[in-house]
Design brief:
The protein is α+β, with helices and mostly antiparallel strands. The protein has 1 helix and 6 strands, in the order E-E-E-E-H-E-E.
């Protein structure tokens, strides 16, 4: 990358890639790994039942039953969170989720 000289007032500044070399943003520290005891969070967009009001116990119960059926193990689901102003999004906390392993059909040769 080449540096470009720009006239600023009575002096010049050196620009690299369009940024002032003295004003480059610092690199962000890498995100630390999650601990073994921390839950994993997933978000579900447009959960079932459609247009459910998560503040109504019946709708919340149906949604949780649907999530448990999708997960396959009721012990994985730790919590379900929602924000009333974002009614099409549900966040669920899972305890040590690993995707189900697909089993291949037996070989019939």
């Amino acid at each position: 990358m080449t540096a470009t000289q720009v006239v600023v007032g009575s002096g010049t500044k050196s620009l690299v890639g369009g940024l002032d070399t003295a004003q480059k943003m610092p690199k962000r520290a890498p995100t630390p790994e999650t601990g073994d005891d921390e839950p994993i969070y997933f978000s579900v967009v447009n959960p079932w039942p459609q247009n459910a009001n998560m503040e109504v116990y019946g709708d919340l119960r149906l949604c949780v039953q649907w999530l448990v059926e999708a997960l396959g193990d009721p012990n994985l689901l730790m919590a379900v969170f929602h924000k009333p102003s974002v009614w099409r999004l549900v966040v669920q906390a899972l305890d040590h989720y690993s995707p189900p392993q697909s089993s291949s059909p037996p070989d019939s040769s």
